[in-house]
Write a structure and sequence with these properties.
The complex is a heterotrimer of chains A (284), B (270) and C (304). Chain A is mostly helical. Chain A is built from nine helices and no strands. The longest helix of chain A has 37 residues. In chain B, a hairpin with a 5-residue loop joins β1 and β2. In chain B, the strands form two sheets. In chain B, strands 6-7-8-3-9-10 form a six-stranded mixed β-sheet, sandwiched between helices. A four-stranded antiparallel β-sheet of chain B has the order 2-1-4-5, covered by helices on one side. Chain C starts with 12 loop residues before the first strand and ends in an 8-residue tail after the last helix. Classes of the chains: A mainly alpha (284), B alpha/beta (270), C alpha/beta (304).
Amino acid sequence: MSAVIQAPIRPAVRRRRPVTLAVGCVLAGVIVAVAVVSLFWLPYPPSDVSGGRLAGPGAGHLLGTDKLGRDLLTQLMIGARIALAVGCGSIALGGILGVAAGLAAGFATRWLDDTIAAALDILIAFPVLLVAMLLVAARGASLSSAIVAIGLGSSAIVARLTRVLVKRILAQDFVTAARTSGTSWPRIVLEHVLPNIWPTLVVNLALQLGVAVLAEASLSYLGLGAPPPNESWGRMLQEAQATVLTAPLGAIAPGVLLILLVIGVNLIADGLRDVADPTRRRSR
Amino acid sequence: MSLLDVTGLSVHAPDGRALVRDLSFSIGPGDRLGLIGESGSGKSLTALAVMGLLPPGMTASGSVLLDAPGLPATEVIGAPARRLNQLRGRAATVVFQEPLTALDPLMRVGRQVAEPLRRRRGLRGAALREAAVAALAEVRLGEPERIARAYPHEISGGQRQRVAIAMALACEPALLIADEPTTALDVSVQADVLSLLASLISARGMALLFITHDLAVVAGVTDRVVVLRDGAAVESGTVRDIVTAPREPYTRDLVASARVFDEALSRRKP
Amino acid sequence: MSPVDPADAGAVLAARDVHFAYRRSAPVLTGVSFAVTPGRSLALVGESGAGKTTLLRLLLGLARPTGGTILFDGRDLDLRDRARRLEFRRGVQTVFQDPYSSLDPRQRVSRIVAEPLRSLGLGIHAASGDADAFGGASASGGARASGGARASGGAGGRGASRAERRVEIRRRVTAALDSVGLPADAADRYPHEFSGGQRQRVAIARAIVCEPRVLLADEPVSALDVTTRVRIVDLLAELKRERGLTVVMVSHDLGVVATICEDIAVLERGRIVERGETDAVLGSPTHPYTRRLVDSAPRLPSLG
């Protein structure tokens, strides 16, 4: 042993219990459970209008019916499925495309980087609505068209964020140290770049998920989203606007579920970020 | 009579940790005092506390009495912001370590120097411009007219620090606080800036509070030093006494460390 | 101050008439030549804009000179050849100025220090039976480590399993941490749990874990407090002495340089203006720039 340790090794800060993660999992878990149940069982068939229009909550219809006489609970359960499909689908698409493009730009030399950055700026300026209309024109209105349109829109934002994060990490000395240690670029990406950027990315993607679900609502309103009778929460919200005073539950219920989903996903993202951050963790 | 009297100064972080503990020192008109310490010693926080510029959440207790000629004596701790604004610049002013962040990147150097001159001396128009150029010339910047028209990023680090000094001096303060003013500079530039600072201060009869981590640097600038560690004063005295006969173990360690590198420089062949 | 011929036999690392310029910019380095011979540590001294950092990047093979050559073991440093690249990386390691940016905050110290072993395949190397390299490394690295270190050579053996390889990497990491004065339990911690000086020790452990011959250090102590600075300088001196490590240090601090390096080369605006034995150059500088540097160094009042 050559030298003395000059200072005691700092005690790690106390670990923040991942309460946020647990709460987020419960919130999002409820929505996921409802969506899964809806695949096997629904209180009424989606197109059943036997309950009469705008019936209040009661024994037959737990949450009442909408203005066409359809069971509200049934609609909400189907909506959960659609919300998750839109949210997860578009985020998966946007995340994969965005991270790939961002990594490419982050690593690229000046000329290619400038080109990708300009392309991203154009894509961000390009309204999702326009993309959606083009897609619908090409493939017809469907849930998948909406997912692709929203996914493309968010991929540009993800890519731009990824690019900045990657550049910041590449400028760190530990990346240079990895290079002089003989670590290959692919391994530098896997072992140094991605572990350092994903927590920020995940939080951003969670925000995007909320945006995606709402974007789908606007698309369906314009007839560019999921076609009836499978209506999304966003569509339900829009349709309940006219009757919000007489039958408030029709607007409140999908709104609350939407908020719960968005909050849940954001809490999960925050929680994951905290758990992944060693400065918030106690060593064994 | 003292210009600055610090008595029992403590600074606490928002979480209650004491970052400066029961620190006392005083500076008379024209005095030069060095605060020396390593990272985390609380030396920069002390400077901020004296100016009433502690970051939000930090609390100071004890007494910081600033009594500049021509101004009412003021207890800085707890003084209202308006009162402190009157003191800043005239009673005391600071030159920071990093000249790049101390200057507004979007404003020409001449205008930045002119601002305190306008406030302090009420100059306007051509007279103000001339005074700004004169202030730049006083800190021995060559071609002061050209520098006045430049933006901060267009001049070198040493030139920027001279501009920062010119701005501080334009306020004609009774006390100049220099917080590691040469740490970010090259060694040869550091030597020039230190000698400039020393000559300006004696020419104007200003007092100096010089904050640094470098014993050798402070030895060339101030007469007395206070050695800080973990927010508390360990030892104080004349620079010569501290360097040649340190009493406390920590000071001895500090001096011995500085000695290692100093002696390596002396050991050279003729 | 004899001009060094970079073709000198025995030079580990050498620059021969090296030029470097970014496109459409003034040259950063002009006609730089020097040689690093084993056992004589070299300081590259200069102020900001002198081209020190660029020179270091060239010596590390992170950039290629626009003119002239960098030589490793007397041959042109060409990192396109894999075997040659591994040999170079094993032989030349580096320590950075900023101990905060040089350690990945999301990796444990054990993983950080093991990175050269994993990437340069030294662990595998040992396992696949390169007894020579492995035995040599163990003899010098393991000797000072805890007495219970496993006998060299036998550890890997042919066809060593993954587990055995992991054990061997772990053993070498512990030995490296020990020789920089860190306790074995430092391995399981994260960088933020350490002070600046301790982080710099971790960085040095990473640099010496694969037993390099040359350590390129970029202002290795200038971010540290003076009391810590002395300890890290002592550590570097000890590594020089006990491992025969040759240090190439880029610095602006003449005091630090004079403590560690036998030779010095003074850079001014991309050119070497003076070169020779450190004591001689600092004692009687011939070039005006060197004289200015020496005169500018702040000094303590003498004891007399």
